[in-house]
Structure formats: C-alpha cells, structure tokens
Amino acid sequence: MGKQELIRKLQEIVGPEYVLFSEMDLILYGYDASVEKGRPDVIVLPGSTEEVSKVVSLAHGERVPVIGRGSGTNLSGGTVPTRGGIVVHFSRMNRILEIDIPNRTVTVEPGVITLDLQTLLLKQGFVYAPDPASQKVSTLGGNVGENSGGPHCLKYGVTTNHVLGAEVVLYDGTVLWTGSKSQDNPGYDLTGLLVGSEGTLGMVTKVILRIIRAPEAVKTLLAIYDTIEDASNTVSAIIAEGIVPATLEMMDNLVMRAVEESVHAGYPVDAAAVLIIELDGMKDGMDRQAEKILEICKRHNVREIKLAKDDAERARLWAGRKGAFGAVSRLRPSYMVCDGTVPRTKLPEVLSKVLEIGKKYGLLIGNVFHAGDGNLHPLILFDERDGDEFKRVQKAASEILKICAEAGGTISGEHGIGVEKLKEMPLIFSESDFEAMRQVKRAFDPGNIFNPGKVLPEPT
Amino acid sequence: MTSNAHKLAAFKEIVGLDHVKSDPDTISDYAVDGMMPWAVVFPTDTEQVSDVVRLAHAEKLAVVPWGSGSKMSMGNAPSHLDLVVCTKRLNRVVDMDTANLTVTVQAGVRFEDIQSSLSLEENRCYLPQEDSATVPDEAVCSDRENKGCFIPMMPLHSHSATMGGIIAGNSSGPTRLLYGLPRDMVLGVRYVAANGEMIGLGGKTVKNVAGYDMCKLMIGSQGSLGILCEMTLRLLPLPEHLGTCVLAFPGLGEASRFFNRLFETSLLPAAVELLNSKAYELLAPQGVKEGDNSGCTVAVALEGFEEAVDRMTSEIREMASASGAKNNMYLKDDEHRVFWDTYCNLVHGLSVDYPDLVSLKLTYPISSYLEVMELLESLRSDHQLEYALLAHAGSGITRIHILFDPANVHSAKRIVKFVDRLLEGCQRIGGNLVVERSGPQLKQRLPVWGVPREDLLVMKRIKQHMDPSGLFCPGRFVGGI
Predict the structure, then answer these.
(1) Which residues of A touch B395 (CB under 8 A)?
(2) Which is it for strands B63-66 and B83-86: parallel, antiparallel or unpaired?
(3) Which tens digit of pLDDT belongs to each residue from A369-424?
(4) Apex CA B401: angle with CA B400 and CA B403, to 5°?
(5) A54 touches chain B (CB under 8 A)
(6) A285 to chain B, closest Cα gap in Å
(7) Could you report the predicted ipTM of this complex, rounded to two decimals?
(8) Which residues have a Cβ under 8 Å from the Cβ of A152 and sit 6 or more positions away?
(9) Global pTM value
C-alpha cells in the first residue's frame, strides 16, 4: 500500500480532520524532549479505543510501525518515530472516565494530563501518588509507558505500583483488559509487564489507577548547604538512620541559579546545594521525626533549614524543583540528562565522579535529582549545534552510565531506554537476559510493529 | 533418550552424590498432588540449577520447583512429573545492605530466618565523603535505638515458607493494607529459564526501568516460567511500636459500620481483618470466654510511631463502640506477636484436625465485601458447611477454610456445588476465586483457578515463547498453562 492509500484508509477510520501529514506536522511529531530525531509517515489522533484498534489492525496488515505519543515529553527518544510509521497521538482520548472512591480507583484514558487528575482528586481529599516532574505536561499514558517516577516515589513507589489494570490493543487490533479493580487476579502480571514497556508491547487505551487518601499532615523542609558533600552525606545519614521521608531531593548551585531566574522559588543562589525533604502521613510523631532530621542536617554542617510555613510556600519550593529542567535552558540551549540510579549508599562517591567527568570533558553539569532513591540526574548543558561539544556530551553521558552500572546500579531509573541508552544496555544485561526479554516482545508483538527499535538492542 | 539410571548419574555429577534422591520414601515426600517424581535434586547455587535444567531440557523432562512445600497444593495436578528441584540448599543470604535498605537472598532462604536476622542487624553505617579528592575511610554509624529492619510482608505459612515460594506464589497477608504486595517489594530476581540460561533482571536500586519489568512477570508465576534462584527485596526500618485492637461486634452490620468510619479517617492501620467464630476460636488469646465469640470479630494491627499507635488505638476504640462493638481488647508485645503468628500459620494448625481442609481465596472489588459476605453465608447454610473465615477488610480478599470430613460421603458433593455457586456469585460482582488447598481427588472436581479472564490469550503466548517445550510445571497454572 502506498502512502496516499494509507492516509486515505486512516482518514476513513478517524476522520480526515484527524490525520496529519503536512511537512510541518512531520517535523513537529518527529522529535520529543530528548536529542533524538525521526520522521513519521503520518500522524493520527484517534478518539476511541475502536479507532485505535482499527489503526493498529491496518498497521499490522501493512507492516507499518505504530508509535504512541502523549505530550512528547519523553527524555530518551521513546516517542521519536526513528523508523517512520504512524504516530498515534492520544490528545483527544483525554477523559477521566470514573472516580471510584469506595474502591480506591480511577479509570482514565491515556491522554489525561497527570496534574489535572491530581488536582481533581485532591478536591475530594484523594491522591494519585506518583508525581513525575513533568506532571504539568505529561500524560498518564506516557507515565504508564515509561513507568515514571517523581520525588514522592521514595515513599510511595513508582507508576507501576499504582496501576491495577489496563485496556490494551494488541498487535492485530484485539482489545483486552489486563488486571481489574479487584486485586490478586490469578495468572501472569501482564499489567506489570506493560508498565514501563515504552509502547513496544501494545497500545494502552485505558488505565485503572490506585488512589489513596491524602495524608493528614505534610512538612516540607529546605536544607541549605555550603558543600555538595555535606548535602549528599546528609542523604546517606538519613537513610542509614532508618528514616524514610516522602521525598529527599537534591539540587546544586548551577540549577538553583537557573531556577531562581525563571521561577523565583526562594532558593539561595549562593549555596552549593539544597535538599528538599518532605514528611507526610499522620501528624503524630511527625514533629519528632522532623527534629531528628534537623539534627542530622546539623551534624553535616547545614547552613540553614527552612520549614515551608504554608501551602503557597510549599508549592513554590516544588515549582522550583519541578521547573528545573526547563529552567536550565536559559544557560545553554540543549541538555542531556542522565538517568543513572545507584544504591543510595553509593551516592556521594558516584556524585563526585560525575563532577570529575564534567571537568574531564570541559562540560557544564548541573545536578537535580531524587537523592533518596539514588536516582541521579546530571544535566549536561550544551549547544547541540556545536558538533564537537555534542560528541563530548555523548561520551560523558556514556561514562556516567558506566560508573552507575559499576556501582551496582542501573542505567535508567525513570526516563526509559528509548533509543538513547540502547548502546549502554550491555552494561547491565547479558545476551541471555536480552533473549528472555525478546521472548516477551515476540509473544506480544510478533511483527515488531509497536515502536520498533526501542528498549532492546538488535540481536548480535 | 537415555535411561533413568543414566540421567540420575548425570544429575549426581552436577549436584553431588548425596543430593539426588530417588528412593521411595523421599519420592513420596515430594509428591505433587499424589503424583510422584522419579527423582528429587537439591542444587546449592544458581549454576547448579542451570546445569540441572539444561540437562532436563535436553532430556525433555517435566520439572516442578519446590521450596518448603507449603503451597504445593495450589494449582492443577501436573500433566507430567519427572523431576522435583528442591531449593532448600539455596539458603544463603547473598547481600544484606541494611544501610541501603535492601537484602538479596537465595530462593531457599526461609522467611522467618531472614526476618529474624534483619531484626538484629546492626549495620546502619555509611561512608561520608569529605570532598571529591579524598577517599572516605571511616564509616559513621547510627546510634538509633531499634536498629533492625524487616521485609514488610506477613506471608501465610510464615513458619515454613521460603522466599522463592513466597515470590513465586505472590504470597501476602494482612499487612498488605499498609505495605503492599511482593510486586512492591521485589527489586531484582535471578532465575533459570527453560533452556537452562541464568537470567538476571533488576538489582539493588528501588527504581529501575531498564528493559522490561520481568520481575513482575516472575512474581506469582508459580514456577511456570523458570526457577527463581535469587531475589533482592526492599526493606523498611522496624516500626517503633506494634499493637493490635481486637473488637467484638454483634454482627456484620455493626462491623461494617465500623469499617466505613475507619476508612473515612486519615488513620493508617497496618491490617484490618474480619474473622468469623471458627477463625476467632483458633486465634483468641487465652482462649475464648463464654459470650465473647460473637461470630464477628475485627482485628486491627497497628505499627508506627508511639504517638500514632496510641492515637489510632484510642480513636479505633471510640469508633468501634459508636458502631455497636460489645467489647474490645488491646494486644501488645508477645500477645500481639503470637496472634499474628497464629494467623499466618492457621492452615497448618487447622490441617492437624482436618487434613483434607479445603481453602479458597476470593477476590472482589473492595466495596463489594458485604455482598460477598451475604453470598457466602447463604451458600454456607444451603450446603451445610462449616468454615473458618478471614477477610482482609480493606483489600477485597476473603479466605475460607472449609472443614471437610471425607468420611462424610455427601460433603464432597456439597463442597463442589458450593464452590461452583460461589464462583458464579463472585464473577457477577466482578471478582474471582482460587482453590489454594485441597486433596487431589476433590481438587479435580473444583475450578482451581476460578474463571480465566480474557488476557489468558497473552499469558499462553508468553508461556509458549518462554517455555516452548513445557518443561516447567506442565498444566499446573491458569488455563492449564
């Protein structure tokens, strides 16, 4: 089937106004928030599961790739159509279908913006716990595809710990549900396999999410340090002390200065690093826990500790943290963020190696990350139009992932493998490990039409 | 195809002479639903498991993994059985990193043993960095009072279960309400696949999205996709304070009023269990006094800061009383420990008097529990059965242990009818049921895995791709996988 015929058939399925193929569209939907670039053949915006099913069925018949897309905030090229194909854009499937408080679930379409769901739930005194920094823009479908994290994952777990079931379109257009509102469904945890599969196993068209009652009390602390070592030692000490706060985030000077310029969150632009420590839960015992944390911070030469005095102040602190990636674009036009995660006790040592790598390649690296779960985010700042600098950046990123793997960690804590980290996958997996994962891929998608060329390297 | 004697010799080469058994006594100890293997092997590490499976694969044998055997009655009878691979010699703690709040154990490590070691573990040390130039040399250690930590699970059969069995069986207990399920705790697994390859996925980090989440696939897969050899789990520091409120209600109406009140608050109990009289009879501390066993007892486990536990205890007592509770009791220290210990090992206790106990696990949306309770009661009385009932009130799970007396010719028939009608009822509510335990003869007449859902289609494909020759547990799992 030629491209024109494909377009015509897609127009029949979703309606002509929802099939895009102009030069501008092909460029716009050929990139995401990573540095990868691609070019789709066509973009469709389906309005229902049946339409998605028909599109996939057609793609299967024609052996054309299909790539799901939410808001395109993917950081590893997961939404970039590197082999052409049909981009299936979920912006029209953005309804919150049901909020079921007695069963502690919500059912949504993939195009719902994460923060929109959280805002609505909060009004009823409930919370969908995972809070990726991109939540203002990213969609739940994207979160499910990547198994997104966020600051509160330290205490509450990542996206997969809050997904109970999914309606999924399989390679031949078959639609079925995995999981359900009731727990412990006998059989394999297919829902668990789908979450984090980066759109390579099937296309999720509905999700059942778990919600919890909003915590009674929250305390948000900003701990200000004059050296990075003191800040990261505090993190190790807090965990070693047996305290598991709701969040334990770290930001360094470079990032803080960029954030202050754009968001004015109240960060001290002359400090080396800050920690954002949040406690939540029942109010009883919280003061005592906060005292312990203060004491640990003091033991590590903290300059000052601020306690957010109201919701507005708390919101500003978080807006700063969550706006960090966007803010650094003031300093240089491009960034490469590494997503290496290490056991938290290795954090201080790995962090200092990251700084050395920056010096070695003459690159500006900012650090803002989930210190409490060992998930680093060195932000390498550069200009991608400078070919030589770009090469140094790629070398530096690779080296950073290597030291994370060597420290007993992983190459991606939350941003996914996509295309970006394919070459580093052999740092942590053997050929047999890949073969086991390929078996899963073949079981779901024998024709390799779902987001081909992502996650798993080609067999050697 | 070589002879059995030849194969036995080959297995002995791999694991050692003393660790391959084919004598009738041992064989019958490792029977699966009355089916005997012709050999049982006891490998001691992942490499040996790998070599054993490679050989089994080449010889087209049917293999069933075995931990301590506490859950072997789950699932259908195997369609074939040649070899049982017992993990009891895979009993090392590979890495205990309490400062990182993770532990890695081999599959044969018993839950009780690792939990006890973790509670005593004093290593809460880390190496502070002075600056990027110096290498840290001295560790700093916490002087926190209760230094221990724990795996936040309360699995059933806690006295005997191995970590491999717990993970392969997706075992959980009352405290799932607060702490979650095995899928929320397992960070990495190492297993041997059907072709003998050693597969390692995940690791020591609490976040990991590299590749597919194969850990989720292995959890609850009941040995049908591979033999789990090692697993890494996340830990939590031991709670400061532990206690249990035991509340006696006149009936389900009052208990249910209490649940509604409790789940409206911001309190965070660790477990909320509903027990019928038979269950309470077995659990009651100091026996049950006359008039105490109302048939509707609620046990609420509390764990956390002292202030929080105190506040929860007092608010729970108030709510219970306002809902019509007849009396309440508070258990702490040993009484608390013994209560939950007995709870987790109830089946073992019951099976002494009732060796042919039939255990069912019902699953349903949380808010449908009243319908489920009513359905159960009406079917129970219709079919004149007696059972111990334990329900996880906030999770939508109920277990019943039917006191089956095979000498009574008619009771088997009644149980079959009861289970069929119960399954029908559960389905209507959007739930399911699973037979967790039953003698092999009766089990053949029961819907062991309830009603399969539409995603069985994909499960079959996964099994087909990962174990094409049907080496592992053939026929045991959902849909006869």
Answers:
(1) 183
(2) parallel
(3) 889 989 999 999 999 899 999 999 999 999 999 999 999 999 999 999 999 999 99
(4) 135
(5) no
(6) 6
(7) 0.95
(8) A129, A130, A131, A246, A247, A278
(9) 0.95
